[in-house]
Amino acid sequence: MITCLAGGVGAARFLEGLVRAVPPADITAVVNTGDDTVLHGLHISPDLDTVTYTLAGAINREMGWGLEGESWAAMEALERYGGETWFRLGDRDLATHLYRTHQLGQGAPLSEVTAQITRAWGLELTLLPMTDDRVATRIKPPGREAIGFQEWFVGERHATPVEAVEFEGIAASTPAPGVIAALSDAEVVVVCPSNPIVSIGPILGVPGVADALRARRESVVAVSPIIAGKALKGPADTLMADLGHEASVAGVARLYAEVAGTLVVDEADHDQVAAVEAEGMRCVVTPTVMNGSESAAALASTVLGAAILDSGR
Amino acid sequence: MITCLAGGVGAARFLEGLVRAVPPADITAVVNTGDDTVLHGLHISPDLDTVTYTLAGAINREMGWGLEGESWAAMEALERYGGETWFRLGDRDLATHLYRTHQLGQGAPLSEVTAQITRAWGLELTLLPMTDDRVATRIKPPGREAIGFQEWFVGERHATPVEAVEFEGIAASTPAPGVIAALSDAEVVVVCPSNPIVSIGPILGVPGVADALRARRESVVAVSPIIAGKALKGPADTLMADLGHEASVAGVARLYAEVAGTLVVDEADHDQVAAVEAEGMRCVVTPTVMNGSESAAALASTVLGAAILDSGR
């Protein structure tokens, strides 16, 4: 059994590789829901959907979100009303949100709805939301009130500087059913190459999660989303810098050292091994850029190998 | 100024005629919202939308609901999840519900959202929901719990017999802003050829509405939706019969006599004039089947003429 902590695109790509390296039924992904938002009355879980659509082979690869071959009739019609269309919801994607919202409205927890949705897409791995409770990542720009994560990430294209990040509701949240067991019982836990602050941060913030990882730190392997000081995609680098972290693999190591024993970094950072080790983590150097499921599978194998070697030491 | 009490399809067709007979800006329609429902978390107002889409020339005429040239990608995708698809929501139609739900969620009253939506469609007449409060028409079949109106009307194709109809929340509701003034100040009030029980019934049930009509009964004209004992469309006839009313123009007259001075009936009921008059209403006989906006405009003119003649007596 392998358990992964997952955000959106980077995690989805890693998981695409992992399901080629390990039987999917042996994989559990604990997915960030801090990005979840309610738009037009619909409950939207961007990270859960990105992982689901990617593993179902249905993601729009160019955009990195949404469904391939999607149509946009609803959004176009919403423009007639001057409605909020900055968060684009495709027609078929809408069905996911309609279904989720309906089921949640009937009292089903998000974890149950997620299981139904992934089953409908034929996924064999288990996706667990980090919590069934409502946690909302909020971004505070300097000199302004905090705004919702999606308003910042999509609405402002994450171009606005960030003074602080808060996870509303997290202290009172509890891990979704199965999360702690999946973290404790797995042979290996992988922290996917996701944004350490706003993708992995909320998962680690759910009470009990970080403790479960600390208790088995030696077989927890994180993959750095930062390569040579830059995020391949998204704002991990600028966000880390804005919040006073070094946007480097050493900066990532500092964030993860308490919960993970090993950091996997890209070859471009081969000269940073000592810096990572100085933070108390082992460091494995390997190609981490995933251009397809081949390279993702290779990365997954290396990550698993590193964990098993490490924990076997 | 003309004010109409309106349900869905029959009212929409009548209003299509009325806007040819009277400047649209002089028309207010008070629309039933008892049919409103929440599906997939979205607030759906079927009668408001049917009237809006019809007057915008955008209705699907064959179906009598929804938009012409609609696409169904969201519903088809919802089937993947085994979601509830008995109430078909087209992709562009969804935008209306997304917009309405969002605005209501922001605290806007339904009347304000309705004004925004009708403005977006270029309508010049005023549509007012009967109330900004939540009123839910519920249908009680014999030997079963009451079900939501749409579950009965769409889900069970109104084939299930009805023991009772209730309007949940109506006693505590108040007329939407402008409703009472529109009813009191109009030169003529028209009760459109809509279902007397479940379309006009809820409107009359909102506290203050029936009183406002009683106070000016002589210039209130109702158009019978029953022709020769049958409803042209929908379950008005069977519903009246189920509830112990005669499914005839005389039965309609009995339901409306307190609030309307005149009943307009179809030529097919020319032999029912005495029966209508026996209920205390004047009776005007004219073709009432609306095959297009020509015949609807002719009916509208006759209805207005009847009201003005009557109130001038």
Q: What is shown here, in short?
A:
The structure is a homodimer of 313-residue chains. Chain A contains 13 helices and 14 strands. Chain A is of the alpha/beta class.
What does it look like?
By secondary structure, the first copy, chain A, is α/β, with parallel strands linked by helices. Chain A has a domain at 136-168. Chain A is built from 13 helices and 14 strands. In chain A, strands 5-2-1-9-10-13-14 form a 7-stranded parallel beta sheet, with helices on both faces. In chain A, helix 1 packs parallel to helix 2 and helix 4 runs antiparallel to helix 5 (110-120). The two termini of chain A are 20 Å apart. The model of chain A has no long low-confidence stretch (mean pLDDT 95).
Strand content of chain A: 15-25%
Average predicted confidence as pLDDT of chain A: 95
Oligomer: homodimer
> Greatest interface and its residue counts?
A-B, 34 and 34 residues
Question: Biggest β-sheet of chain A: count, sense, barrel?
Answer: 7 strands, parallel
As residue ranges, the low-confidence spans of chain A are none
What's the count of strands of chain A? Answer: 14
Continuous helix count of chain A: 13
Radius of gyration computed on alpha carbons of chain A? 18 Å
Element order, helices and strands of chain A? Answer: EHEEEHHHHEEEHEHEHHEEEHHEHEH
- Largest sheet: spatial strand order of chain A: 5-2-1-9-10-13-14
Distance between the termini of chain A: 20 Å
Helical proportion of chain A? 40-55%
Shape of chain A: globular
Question: Helix/strand/pairing class of chain A, anyone?
Answer: alpha/beta
